[in-house]
Amino acid sequence: MSGFILETKHLTKEFKGFTAVNDVNLKVQRGHIHALIGPNGAGKTTCFNLLTKFLVPTSGQILFNGKDITAAKPAQIARMGVIRSFQISAVFPHLTVLQNVRIGLQRQLGNSFNFWQSERSLNALNDRAMQLLADVDLSEFADTITVDMPYGRKRALEIATTLAMEPELMLLDEPTQGMGHEDVHRVTELIKKVSAGRTILMVEHNMKVVSGICDKISVLQRGAMLAEGSYAEVSSNAQVMEAYMGTEATVLEGAH
Ligand SMILES: Nc1ncnc2c1ncn2[C@@H]1O[C@H](COP(=O)(O)OP(=O)(O)OP(=O)(O)O)[C@@H](O)[C@H]1O
Ligand SMILES: [Mg+2]
After folding, report:
1. Rounded to two decimals, what is the model's pTM?
2. Ligand 1 test: best mutation among 13, 15, 49, most atoms within 8 Å of CB?
3. Which residues form the ABC transporter domain (predicted)?
4. Where is the domain boundary, 107, 141, 166?
C-alpha cells in the first residue's frame, strides 16, 4: 500500500460558477499531522466538506487507502475510519462528559442514539469511556454537565468523542479556535499525543500550533494549492508570504 492514506486528484468544487476548490491534488502521508492553511475564504472548510462527503465535488477524485471514495456516503466514510471533529461543538451540552463519550462509543458500535438502552448495558461502556477521558486528561470532569466545562475542555471532549469512533484519519477543523494561550497549549499537546498510530489532517490558523506539531503543510489560496512542504519551507516561500500580506501578515511572524 502506498504511504499516502489520503489523496485527492484534481479535486474541484464550484458554487454557481464560483470555484471554491480548484484542481487540488492533496497527498496526506500515513502517520503525519498534516496542516491545511490559507487565508480566510481559501477553501479549507470546503475541502473538508468534500473529504467527508458533506459536499459532492464538481469534479476530481478522492482516494482513501488507495480506494476511490469519491462516490461514498458520509456514513460509509465514517465506518472506513475517516472521522471529523466539527468546527462547531458537536457534543450534547446538557449531558455529562462521560455520557457524551459513551454516546460516541455507541455510535462506533453502530447503534447510534440508543438513549433508551438500559443503564446496565450503558455501564458496560464505562471502562472504555473512562479510558478515553483519561487520554484527554478529563477524568476529573466525568460527571460534570458538559455545558459547565471551560471552553478548552469542551474541545478536548470533542476530541475524545472523535477518538471513540476509532479514526484512522482524524480531520480537525480549527481545533484551537477561540482559545487562550493555556488551552491552545494543552490542546496542541493533546493532538500530538492522540496522533500516535493515526493520521491527522487539520485546518489551523495558529502558526505556533502548525510549526510546533505539523509534519507537512499545504497552503491553499483562492481554492488552489499555493505551496506545500515543511513549516520552514512554506513560511519562507515568497508566494505564501505575499498571500498572507494585507490579510494576516502577522500570522506567520507570530510563530517565531
Ligand atoms: N455553500 C456555499 N455556497 C457558495 N459559496 C460558498 C459556499 N461555501 C463556501 N463558499 C465560498 O467558498 C469560499 C471558500 O470558503 P471556505 O469556507 O471553504 O473557506 P475557509 O478557507 O474555510 O475560510 P475560513 O478560514 O474563513 O474558515 C468562500 O469564498 C466562501 O464564501
Ligand atoms: Mg473554514
Report:
1. 0.88
2. 15
3. 6-247
4. 166
Q: Are residues 116 and 4 part of one domain?
A: no
Residues 235 and 212 in one domain: yes
- CA dist 163 and 49 (Å) reads 19
Residue 190 sits in the same domain as residue 247: yes
Name the closest-CA residue to atom 11, ligand 1: 20
Domain that holds residue 199: 1-81+168-256
- Pairing label, strands 224-229, 216-221: antiparallel
Which residue type, as a one-letter code, is found at position 34? Answer: H
Do residues 199 and 252 share a domain?
A: yes
Contact at 8 Å (CB) between 44 and 38? yes
How much distance in Å is there from the Cα of 41 to the middle of ligand 2? Answer: 7
Report CA(81)–ligand 1 centroid distance (Å): 26
- From the CA of 11, how far away is ligand 1's center (Å)? 15
Mean pLDDT of successive 10-residue stretches along the chain, which has 256 residues:
90 96 98 96 95 94 96 90 73 92 75 56 80 95 95 90 91 91 92 94 94 96 96 92 65 48
Q: Which residues line ligand 1 (CB under 6 A)?
A: 15, 18, 20, 38, 40-46
The dihedral formed by the CA atoms of 211, 235, 4 and 43, expressed in degrees to the nearest 10: 100
